[in-house]
Amino acid sequence: MPKAKSILAIAAGWLAISTAPLWKYLSHPKAIAAAAFGVLGIATGMLIVDRLNRRGWQPGYGWLAALYLLLAVAILILYPLSLRHTFNAGSDREDAIRVSLNAIQHHQFPYSARTYLNNPPTPLPGALLLATPFHALGHIVWQNLFWTALFFLLSLRIFRHRATALFFLTLFFLCTPVVINDLVTGGDYIINFLYITIAVVLFVSALQRRLPVAMLAAAFLGIAISSRAIYPLVLIPLLALTLQRSSRGRTAALFTVVTATAAAVTLPVFTPHPLTRLLHQLMLTSSNVVTLPHSLHLVIILPLLALLILGSAFFLQMNLQCLSLLFALATVIILAPPAIAQALLGNTTAVSYLAVPVMAMSLCVLARYEIADKSAQPAHA
Considering only CA atoms, which of 19, 6, 2 is closest in space to residue 355? Predict the structure, then answer.
């Protein structure tokens, strides 16, 4: 991918999810200046990364550690302030998990609870299960520190060079308002994306390993995709990739484990009418879409377009980069129209939903942006 197009893609994605919060909290001249500075910083940073990668000089691991410590300190300082709603009403994403888990502890249906903003919980049972150990520790926000730490380590495998990994992590975990806000308020939306990425990379890495190891990775993936309604979409390009790298029998066994684990985690929560209740919860999660004109039938059209894009994976030579790009395109088709519509109606926080496709797209673009070193083995094929 030509450098100019890569820079443009990353800058456009960052602007798409950063302009609204900048416009909300800064005066218009300051917001314009901040956006321009951000675009200039992205272009400069990517050119520096390119030069470092070409010359073979890479930042030490201490830079990654320092960035993580800075993020951890920000969470530890700002999270208590978010609980007091010092700056605004805040986000109720963490509260959605808390009230759901409290309801389960009292043998109640978790999705009948309400957050402090009177919203119904939207995280699916996989997200609740993965948050349970941290809820037991007293604060669900601890999962944000845990999964970001694992993702920081995984970035060294996703990217060929540490300079590229450091740029991606700095851009999104230090310079992207919607990501920072979600993390410091205890939200799980970005965290869902992080552990889905971890699960997919572990699954692909385990394809050539012993079957028990691969099945463990498949089970973790099954739990992870049960976190939010959009993540089962990743299974379509992942199936295409697995068929290209493994036998049909092994592929069938692994995807049986994935789907069986997802079902085992999800369906019991919705008893005694699991399918009806699950469908209702999925429609509730997708309620942003139906706020658009019903005559457009977007509830049907958008998912069908997404499935069409994901289905193209079976006609492509698949790798993790291609999988990430297809997932980004599919999710932006589903999430962008309602997010834009709500933003135009005044709900500027809706653009935060686009952080997932933007980060997925950026993983692909930056991985392709790296200079291929013939003497080095790539992080992944």
Answer: 19
User: Hey, what are 160's tokens?
Assistant: 């060929």
Answer whether the bond into residue 337 is a cis peptide, omega within 30°: no
Spatial CB neighbours of 148, under 8 Å, sequence gap ≥ 6? 68, 71, 173, 183, 191, 194
What pTM does this model have? 0.91
Nearest-angstrom CA–CA distance, 233 and 191: 17
3-state helix, strand, coil in the chain (%, to 5): 75, 0, 25
Tokens 């009177």: give the residue: 118
Question: Can you tell me the mean pLDDT for 343-364?
Answer: 86
Does residue 28 come out as left (phi exceeding 0), alpha (psi in the -120 to 50 range) or beta? Answer: alpha
Q: End-to-end CA distance of the chain: give it in Å, rounded.
A: 16
SS3 at position 22: helix
Distance CA 164, CA 46 (A): 8
Residue with tokens 């079902």: 263
Mean pLDDT across the stretch 54-66? 92
The predicted-structure confidence for 90-116, as pLDDT tens digits, reads as follows 678 888 999 999 999 988 999 988 888
Residue 380 has pLDDT above 50, yes or no: no
244-270 burial: b if 16+ Cβ within 10 Å, else e = eebeeebbeebbebbeebbeebbeebb
pLDDT reading at 227 higher than 70 = yes
CA 90 to chain centre: 20
Count how many residues are written for the chain.
381
Which structure tokens are listed for 92?
């109720």
DSSP 161: S
